[in-house]
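Figure 6 in text form: structure in, sequence out.
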């Protein structure tokens, strides 16, 4: 078996273990991923049999699909395979083999061993229609009512909640475990350039999900039509072994159009010391990400024994949170760094900023002691708002600066945003002439579960209830304003971490919120 084949075989085995709730018996796995209109082979239910079907077997399924969901479906089919996969089978780009069997009933199917011999997993799937108009209330629902094998009713154990697949304006998995021979992907970052090119970045975690110092590459895809289609993945910088990888992209575009990307590499956060700091690197692009400069080490501007600041020269480690940076009216570009100041396992947050498009870098006073990954955004009044991951779970922490990030002070204006200790994104969107602050985070409450968006009401000084976008396991996310009221949301889904690009509008979010 090739190395790529071995990696993917391991992936399927682990996926099966993650999905299986109990040993033995027939299990039913409803799907809860998003979809887009016109998509093909979308799983409604996956049925894992106790044994492969024999030629003499006859399996009967009775299922229920509500009328409003039937209207969204062009046709039904059963896909038969020997693999239990987490996502739609086509997401694996041919790595999961299956046979297709059309159905002509909305409520039942009789499957003979002659046609399905050897199948271990059956996927009740739908080819989707394209409705005359989009609605966020378009949802695929389905449940298995009865299953019988050779005339005997068999109890099937449902694993997880019932099928719930919401239509989005677009829903595109950009990086899926096994793509390009990589065991995993993590750390989604999305950016739209001034000329309208979309850039999607991720960590290509070749052998496992673990952070640096693992062997990790930085990978990119580009879109020239606002996310409808994407280029093939391109490795921007390649890791060359344990302790020699790269990851955690943070990106911003200067007013001149130059893209500035920061990322880390080397021995990892908890192994840095003042005389052997974990490096922070920078690459730049002047052509919307078509080409990038060689990596340049900028660690000495931030911390470590070569830093000219006496205090920061003694700091142990640091990294900038993945996602998007910010640009002030004066042209200052900025990111938030989490610094480990000493031997204690604590991180403090500082702003890292440049007034010359990355040629030199400076560091603010400490914004918060005891934080973690943080994002920064320039508010409509020019204030700089820092959103800080709470390492202890609980509420998100906010700090504000009125001098372009040099000094910081507490603020209670944005209190009450629950944070299950995860990286998220802040985004300003315009509606009816007003700027609205959105924040993405898993709803939790105590784990990375149910990726959601929140909107901030400045008049009531409170956050909205969570609007869940992707049910189930969800972790890091990033967001971008795509123009014309459209939001691009790039998020980690599933235990195996697929990177999915989803689009919707503020009006869609508000309609979804009214469902509850």
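Output sequence:
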């Amino acid at each position: 078996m090739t190395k790529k084949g071995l990696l993917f075989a391991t992936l399927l085995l682990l996926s099966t273990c993650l999905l299986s709730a109990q040993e033995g018996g027939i299990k039913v796995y409803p799907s809860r991923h998003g979809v887009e209109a016109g998509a093909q082979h979308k799983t409604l239910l996956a049925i894992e049999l106790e044994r492969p079907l024999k030629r003499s077997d006859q399996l009967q399924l009775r299922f229920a699909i509500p009328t409003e969901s039937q209207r969204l479906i062009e046709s039904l089919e059963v896909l038969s395979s020997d693999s239990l996969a987490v996502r739609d089978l086509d997401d694996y780009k041919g790595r999961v083999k299956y046979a297709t069997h059309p159905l002509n009933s909305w409520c039942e199917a009789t499957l003979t061993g002659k046609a399905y011999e050897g199948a271990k997993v059956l996927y009740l799937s739908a080819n989707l229609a394209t409705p005359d108009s989009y609605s966020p209330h378009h949802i695929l629902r389905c449940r298995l009512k009865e299953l019988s094998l050779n005339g005997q009713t068999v109890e099937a154990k449902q694993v997880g909640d019932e099928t719930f697949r919401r239509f989005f304006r677009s829903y595109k998995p950009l990086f899926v475990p096994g793509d390009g021979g990589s065991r995993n992907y993590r750390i989604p970052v999305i950016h739209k350039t001034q000329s309208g090119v979309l850039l999607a970045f991720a960590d290509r975690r070749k052998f496992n999900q673990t952070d640096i110092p693992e062997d990790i590459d930085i990978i990119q895809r580009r879109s020239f039509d606002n996310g409808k289609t994407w280029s093939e993945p391109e490795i921007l910088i390649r890791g060359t072994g344990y302790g020699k990888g790269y990851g955690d992209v943070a990106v911003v575009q200067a007013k001149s159009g130059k893209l500035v990307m920061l990322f880390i590499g080397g021995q990892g956060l908890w192994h840095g010391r003042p005389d052997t700091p974990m490096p922070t690197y920078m690459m730049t692009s002047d052509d919307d990400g078509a080409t990038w400069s060689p990596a340049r080490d900028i660690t000495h501007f931030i911390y470590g024994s070569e830093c000219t600041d006496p205090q920061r020269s003694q700091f142990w480690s640091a990294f900038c949170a993945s996602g998007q940076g910010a640009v002030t009216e004066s042209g200052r570009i900025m990111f938030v760094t989490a610094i480990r100041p000493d031997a204690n396992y604590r991180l403090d947050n500082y702003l890292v900023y440049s007034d010359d498009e990355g040629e030199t870098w400076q560091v603010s006073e400490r914004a918060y002691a005891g934080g973690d990954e943080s994002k920064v955004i320039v508010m409509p009044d020019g204030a700089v708002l820092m959103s800080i991951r709470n390492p202890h779970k609980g509420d998100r922490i906010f700090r504000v600066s009125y001098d372009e990030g040099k000094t910081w002070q507490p603020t209670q204006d944005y209190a009450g945003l629950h944070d299950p200790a995860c990286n998220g994104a802040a985004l300003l969107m315009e509606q009816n002439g007003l700027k609205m602050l959105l924040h993405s985070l898993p709803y939790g409450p105590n784990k990375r579960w149910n990726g959601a968006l929140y909107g901030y009401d400045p008049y009531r000084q409170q956050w909205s209830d969570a609007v869940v976008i992707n049910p189930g396991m969800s972790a890091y996310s990033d967001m971008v304003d795509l123009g014309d009221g459209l939001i691009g949301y790039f998020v980690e889904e599933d235990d195996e971490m697929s990177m999915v690009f989803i689009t919707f509008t503020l009006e869609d979010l508000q309609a979804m919120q009214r469902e509850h």
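Caption detail: The CA atoms of residues 383 and 402 lie 5 Å apart.
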